[in-house]
Model the fold of this input.
Amino acid sequence: MSEEGIGVYTIARQLNADGVPTKFNYYDGTFKRKDNYTNQITSHNKSDVRWRGNVVHLLLKNTIYKGSRKWNNGLNETKVPAIIDEITWDRVNANLKLNKKNVGKRDEYHYLLNGLVFCGTCGKEYRGKKRLKGRDNAYKCKSKMRNAQSCTSRALSIPKLETFIIKHLFLSKDLEEYLSGLSGDKKDIDGITTKLSSLCMENERNKAIEKKAYDRLLDPDFSDDEIIKERLKTVKKKIQDNDIAITELENRLIERDQKNRTKRIKNTIGKYKLTTGFDETKELVHSLIKKITIQHNNKPDSRGGYFLIKIEYRGFEESIMFMTDWAALKWYQVGYYRSRAITKEDLQDDVDLLKYFIKASGKKIQVPKDFVGFEAYGGGKGESIIELNPDELIYFD
Done:
């Protein structure tokens, strides 16, 4: 196929369409992958791995298929049984270089929300897909990219979604007032503090074991003791893992501290200007938003249906829900979620409701001291609408 001039990405799509398994598909278990946008490490099932263009390219470039196994940066070589003859291999690779030369400079695109947006239908990530010479300019469900029939979700315009998020975060004062007015979750903070203390104590014990193991290995009688060496290796790995977990918990505590949280929100929102470049804007957006879930709903009497967009914020349990139609020019706040009472008035209402339930059950009315209110969903404010002007959409490319 490559020799006929078919590109590696087209070959990958054809292999997937034909159901050709990858080498991972023959094994059980998972593997980890680091996201280039969020630096988050996620686990994936080996059975779900599909062909990709870069993998096909690496296979075509591998000399082992023409009978030459190279290692040590090509300095060492061993002859192995060939799968294809050397003339064919050379011809295919010469064609690869020619194709690469003829492609020209690859266009680079900027996606503000990659790594944050997920599909409410299948759970897969929404990824930006843009082609200046084509019609693609939208965030699409990854399931939809691979197989159009695998998910019923619809794509959402990149400039419209990104402009809405920027307006919601930085240009509307509603969000700053809402998040700044939320109190911290004491139960959550106490849980993080307890876990942090436990990990710190465990690390102190492991460091003592590590020092003792090193001292033993310095003794000539134990210098070659494999049991001590293996124990030392295990303890060092545990210390490294705990250090990472401790740093993460410390950051979570900083995020949840009320003073730090309010200051962080105001400082972050205040940094944005309409002239702010892509990289800084992306950093600001990712520091405020934890996750965006897009749920597309078909409506028989409505063109293109409508979208529900749930936004979750870093350091908060609360979230806000917006709705927009296929045109995505008017975004209505239709609800919010809270994990506890937000204001004193909310808490008093919840206390009164709790007393009513206790009294109705015939028990003695006694409100727990650690009662923080009920988990609740609420409707949106009618006046909370974000409108986009088609002539003022923000484009980063």
Remarks:
- The chain has a mean pLDDT of 80.
- Residues 117-183+262-392 form one domain.
